[in-house]
Structure formats: structure tokens, C-alpha cells
Specification:
heterodimer; A: mainly alpha; B: alpha+beta; Arc Repressor Mutant, subunit A
């Protein structure tokens, strides 16, 4: 039982960022072995929630300024959800371009991503507002000295990859059930994760990303009659936009309130 | 200051402790009310170490496992003192009002 418990803890520890594991991993497992005897439901829950918080906190240890990290997160979130919404581009080299774009953004290589984003989104028929926001963010990141972006998790690429599967439905508020619920769920999950990460890391990078992401979506919805549904505002619209706007606003408030908490 | 941070720093006032020692001490000091999860403890210690409020004091090997002892710094004591003063003010506000109104 002791050996199985330790194996279990070590597997859960793999969810933590490498830096944290190197600094605290062995100590943490040693203390867990002293502090627990039965199957540790409480400690398992704390390890799982702590892993997400540890990733959020670890971002503060990089030299990247918080605002640059926030812009990077916003561009990545807008790109993967837009590519998920559009499906594989039908234009020549569109699919290859989209895959390379996501890879470049995951690696934090802004300069080559800038023209490629313009090509991919124009070919995909993306709204001019979203193209403008993505290009503006990338331009700031490319031109501002010393922004040195960090690599992002491969998990981001799972969002477009999943929605590009032949069996998957459309990603969007007006997609048919049950895919509308899945896409709304992903948006709410992103905004909720931003709130949680803001509270854990106690800075504003995820709040900034959340505000740009939700703001772009709202602007696109209000200013562009992209789907021809603009005159028709259903309860679902108000619930959806109300929820994600509330989560983005809560992230901004949390960033301000937790900034000085030790 | 979060409750976990407050109790962890308080536990270290009497001298350096290792992780399990901090958990035991916080349990004693709070009469069993505060039970800090191990993952929460090490994330908090990691953050406090980054902020310079605690430092690693020494390490020892017990039954093949490394035990690191943590020590509170002067900045840590200062932060704890400020938080205690804030809490004391909050307590006095209520107790003084209760004494006046007799509620």
C-alpha cells in the first residue's frame, strides 16, 4: 500500500511544472508519505487543484513582462478557438498554414507568426475585427523590446485538433446542439480558468488575456453581422455573453484585489 | 495574507521546521482547526521563498528522504507583525463596539 501510495503521488506530481518539481517535488512526496496513511482523497484533490495553480504561479518566474504574457495568451486563445470555429481551411496551403501558425504561437515566435496569421485568417474568412486584434497584439509583441515570450503547453493545440475531427460539430454559439454547448463550455472554461489563474498567480496576465478574448468576441458579435442573426438576440445570447463578460470582469477585479496579498 | 500563509509563518516563529513539522505545529496552534494540505503547504512555501519571507535553513536525510528546514526571515516577521496588527485592529473595532452598545 505504501509503495502504491508513493507511485500515485509521483504520477500526480508529473502534472506540476518542471521548475516546481525540481525545487519542491522530493520534499512534497516525502511529507505526503509522512502525513497520510489511508487512500488520500483530500491530498489528491489538493494536488490536482495545486497543479493548475502551480502552472499559473510558475509563469511569474519567467522574465516575460505580465502584459506581454497576457497578449500572448490572448492571441493563442483567439487563434485556436477561431481555427476550431472555421474548421480546416479549404484554401491551398490553408490547413498547413493554420497548423504552422499554432506551432509558432506555442513556441512564442512572433515575427514569422505575424504574416502567417494574416494569410491564414484572410483565407479562412475570419472577421476583420479578430484579424485586427490578433495582428495588433502580435505587432506589439514583435516590436516591443525585451518581451521574450515563453513556450506554451501543447494542450492548446487540442482545441482546433478536436473540432477538426470529421465527427465533431461546429464551434460557435449558433452551432446546433449539442456542439453549441461544447463550444460555449470551452469559452466559459477558458474565462473561468483565467479567473482561477489570476487568483492563484496574483497578477493580471490572465485577466488581460480574458478581457481581450471576450472583448473581441463581443465586438465581433455587435459590429459585424457575420451570421445574419444580429437583429435576433435570444436569451441564450444574453446568458452566454453575460457569463463570459462576468468572468472576464471578475478576473480584472481579482487581479487588482490579490496583487498585494501575500 | 491568506490563512495558510499566516499559520505557516506563525509556526516558524519558534525556529526552523521541516514541512511535516509545520503541518503538525499549525494543527497544535489552531487546536486542530487548521489542516493545511501538503500540496498547499509546498506551493505556499515556494511563493514565500520567492518573496524572501522564508529561506531554506538546512537539510537532513531521514530514512533515505531529504528533509528541508525552513526559517522565517526578518521580512517574514515584518509581514506577519503587520498582519497581526491589522487583525488586532479589526478585533478591537468589534469588541469596543460591543462594550459600548452592550450587544
Amino acid at each position: 500500500m505504501t509503495r502504491r501510495r508513493e507511485t500515485w503521488y509521483r504520477r500526480l506530481l508529473l502534472l506540476y511544472p518542471r521548475g516546481f518539481r525540481d525545487r519542491q517535488g522530493e520534499e512534497l512526496v516525502g511529507t505526503l508519505m509522512l502525513a497520510t496513511h489511508r487512500f488520500p482523497i483530500r491530498e489528491t484533490a489538493a494536488l490536482l487543484t495545486g497543479a493548475f495553480a502551480a502552472h499559473a504561479t510558475e509563469a511569474r518566474r519567467t522574465r516575460t513582462p505580465w502584459w506581454a504574457d497576457g497578449l500572448h495568451l490572448a492571441v493563442l486563445a483567439l487563434t485556436v478557438t477561431e481555427l476550431a470555429a472555421q474548421g480546416p481551411p479549404r484554401s491551398q496551403f490553408g490547413t498547413e498554414g493554420a497548423i504552422v501558425l499554432v506551432l509558432l504561437l506555442l513556441r512564442g515566435w512572433v515575427w514569422p507568426a505575424l504574416p502567417l496569421a494574416l494569410f491564414v485568417f484572410t483565407a479562412a474568412g475570419t472577421s476583420s475585427i479578430l484579424i485586427g486584434v490578433v495582428l495588433a497584439c502580435l505587432a506589439v509583441l514583435a516590436l516591443w523590446p525585451g518581451t521574450g515570450l515563453t513556450r506554451r503547453s501543447w494542450g492548446w493545440s487540442a482545441i482546433p485538433a478536436f473540432f477538426w475531427l470529421p465527427s465533431a460539430g461546429a464551434f460557435g454559439l449558433y452551432a446546433f446542439q449539442p456542439w453549441a454547448l461544447v463550444s460555449v463550455g470551452i469559452d466559459a472554461l477558458l474565462a473561468g480558468a483565467a479567473l482561477w489563474a489570476t487568483v492563484a498567480a496574483r497578477d493580471a496576465r490572465w485577466a488581460l488575456a480574458s478581457a481581450i478574448y471576450v472583448g473581441t468576441g463581443l465586438a465581433t458579435f455587435q459590429l459585424e453581422d457575420r451570421w445574419g442573426y444580429l437583429p435576433w438576440h435570444s436569451t441564450r445570447d444574453f446568458l452566454y455573453w453575460g457569463l463570459v463578460t462576468l468572468l472576464a470582469a471578475a478576473s480584472a477585479v481579482a487581479a487588482r484585489r490579490t496583487e498585494k496579498v501575500i | 495574507m491568506s490563512e495558510a500563509t499566516y499559520f505557516i509563518l506563525t509556526a516558524l516563529l519558534d525556529g526552523p521546521l521541516h514541512g511535516y513539522g509545520i503541518i503538525l505545529r499549525t494543527g497544535e496552534q489552531s487546536a486542530g482547526r487548521v489542516r493545511i494540505a501538503v500540496a498547499t503547504l509546498y506551493r505556499t512555501l515556494d511563493r514565500l521563498e520567492e518573496g524572501g519571507l522564508v529561506v531554506a535553513d538546512r537539510e537532513e536525510i531521514v530514512e533515505g528522504r531529504t528533509r528541508r528546514y525552513y526559517r522565517i526571515t526578518d521580512d517574514g516577521i515584518g509581514a506577519l507583525r503587520a498582519e497581526a496588527a491589522r487583525l488586532q485592529q479589526a478585533v478591537e473595532l468589534v469588541t469596543r463596539r460591543i462594550a459600548v452598545t452592550g450587544a
